[in-house]
Amino acid sequence: MASEDAYTAEPFVPARGGLPALREAAADCRGCPLHRDATQTVFGTGDTDARVMLVGEQPGDQEDRQGKPFVGPAGRLLDRALEEAGIDPADAYVTNAVKHFKFTRTAPGKRRVHKSPTQREAAACGPWLAAELALVEPELIVVLGATAGKALLGSSFRVTQVRGTVLEEEIHGHPERLVPTVHPSAVLRADDRETAYRGLVSDLKVAAQALG
User: Fold this and answer.
1) DSSP letters spanning 102-113
2) Partners of 92 in the β-ladder
3) Does residue 2 carry a pLDDT above 60?
4) Side-chain-facing half-sphere of 86: CA atoms under 13 Å
5) Confidence of residue 1 (pLDDT cuts 50, 70, 90)
6) Distances from the Cα of 169 to the Cαs of 93, 133, 141, in angstroms?
7) How confident is the model at residue 76 (pLDDT cuts 50, 70, 90)?
8) Which residues pair with residue 168 across a beta bridge?
9) What is the mean pLDDT of residues 188-197?
10) What is the per-residue pLDDT for 14?
11) Residue 20, SS3 per DSSP
12) Over the stretch 91-113, which tens digit does the pLDDT of each residue have?
């Protein structure tokens, strides 16, 4: 593509067919350059009747290899935190704002290191997230981290300012309720991991209460 302004997944999103059709079409998305280096598209998982949608940043190394979101260390920590907060992970639809793994390497053949997607790359992937929201129609969206928050709520989003609160916003033309919190990978990187984990669980308990 000639410029970032042209980045969009819109031409690749099917008009009908449900989640299976979306997942199949997303495998061939070329809406931005991230597909070139990633192993595969990592689409959302879960049922259309899920009451809560969890939206993270992008796939990590393990997710890119396995083709499923949140299957690495951050995903395992998230599942534990959800259960502790009273939300069954099996009842959630789990996805990311960006569907391809963006990374850098410290040297040829070395470990792939996560690199945050740009706001423009997240926006390019927005049509997939909009389509997922339209099909699942969750009662609540749990926003995991700053990139997901900015993708849904705009560049002024600051997770530290609104985490653990219930927001009511219009997202892709529909009124939605959202509870922002930190991304579980931030807990893994924290100096005081236990305190960070307790904060995540506390935010997820707000989400559980909002679901009733």
Assistant:
1) -EEESSTTS-EE
2) 52
3) no
4) 11
5) very low
6) 19, 14, 11
7) very high
8) 177
9) 97
10) 96
11) helix
12) 999 999 999 999 998 777 788 88
Q: How far is CA 160 from the centre of its chain?
A: 18
Q: How far apart are CA 174 and CA 145, in angstroms?
A: 21
| Residue 49 clears pLDDT 90, i.e. is over it | yes
Instruction: Write out the two tokens for 70.
Output: 């949140």
Residues 28 and 69: their CA atoms lie apart, in Å, by 17
Q: Is the pLDDT of residue 157 over 70?
A: yes
Alpha carbon 73 to chain centroid distance?
15
The answer to whether 185 and 81 are in contact (CB under 8 A) is no
Burial zone of 156 (CB within 10 Å; 0-12 exposed, 13-18 middle, 19+ buried): exposed
Q: Provide CB contacts within 8 A for 32, sequence distance 6+.
A: 1, 7, 8, 9, 100, 120, 121, 124, 125
CA distances from 174 to 97, 168, 171 (A): 17, 10, 5
Chain position carrying tokens 């926006």: 123
Q: How far is Cα 129 from Cα 16, in angstroms, rounded to an integer?
A: 15
Residue 51 and residue 85: Cα distance in Å, rounded?
15
Q: Are 179 and 140 in contact (CB under 8 A)?
A: yes
